[in-house]
Write a structure and sequence with these properties.
With 243 residues, this protein is an alpha+beta fold. The chain contains four helices and eight strands. The chain folds into two domains: 97 residues, no CATH class; 105 residues, Alpha-Beta Complex (Ribosomal Protein L22, Chain A).
């Protein structure tokens, strides 16, 4: 779930033109993000972590106002703008300079000194999390939809059948995908090493109707994993390595 930074999308729609589609004049700041229950889910999962974000569907123009060829470009630029807004708002709330973190050569965000963070977006929702390294060594978050997971268990390297949360076989592959995504996001900046989903093992220690907790292991590191399916058709996941 990497945020998008390319100056041109695949249709060749330029950013300035796309900003006009989104209703932003030159130099104008994006609109506010709307409250979203996925942000509340993430805050419940990790109460000591700063979490921000929301929905930005209201930034998009009516489909009838944008040609079919340009709609994808408009969405891409909305994602970019919403991610930037999400990050600067989160940093401001943390008392840090409101400057969107750039990217390192690895693709990870260059978080402010003494902090770790993570970003995720899906559809027209974006979320971000931030924590001081005095409390958390590594942090990953992810949001995914669960209404398209049929056949996901057949993806090579996703995981073993006994890694699925018991009682949730129908949406378990989607949950497992999200959890392993958070583990990668947390550990890759920490260790500097690449690994696939088949390099992550998951075991669940508590599974309730809408919330699950467990432990993942990857690259020799144990990771605290937590996920919520309180919002129908969605999963919100967090991976933490405590200081």
């Amino acid at each position: 779930m990497n945020d998008l930074d390319a100056p041109l999308d695949s249709t060749g729609l330029r950013l300035r033109e796309t900003r006009e589609y989104l209703g932003f004049s030159e130099g104008e700041q994006p609109k506010d993000l709307r409250m979203d229950p996925l942000v509340d889910d993430l805050r419940r999962l990790a109460p000591g972590i700063s979490v921000g974000g929301g929905a930005f569907a209201h930034w998009l123009p009516p489909p009838a106002d944008v040609s079919p060829d340009d709609r994808h470009g408009a969405l891409r630029q909305a994602i970019r703008s919403a991610t930037g807004k999400c990050l600067t708002d989160l940093l401001t709330e943390a008392g840090l300079p409101a400057v969107e973190p750039g990217h390192l050569a690895s693709g990870s965000r260059d978080w402010p000194a003494g902090h770790v963070g993570s970003v995720s977006h899906k559809g027209t929702r974006v979320v971000a999390a931030l924590a001081p390294t005095s409390d958390v060594r590594a942090l990953g978050i992810d949001i995914e939809t669960l209404d398209h997971v049929e056949g996901l268990s057949e993806i090579d390297g996703l995981g073993a059948a006994d890694e699925l949360p018991p009682g949730y076989e129908a949406v378990g592959p989607g949950i497992l995908f999200s959890v392993k995504e958070t583990v990668y996001k947390a550990l890759n900046p920490l260790t500097g090493r690449e690994f696939g989903f088949d390099g992550v093992t998951v075991s669940w220690v508590r599974v309730h109707s809408t919330e699950m907790r467990g432990t993942a292991r990857a690259d020799g590191v144990a990771v605290d994993i937590r996920c919520s399916i309180a919002l129908p058709s969605w999963v919100a996941s967090v991976a933490l390595v405590s200081a």
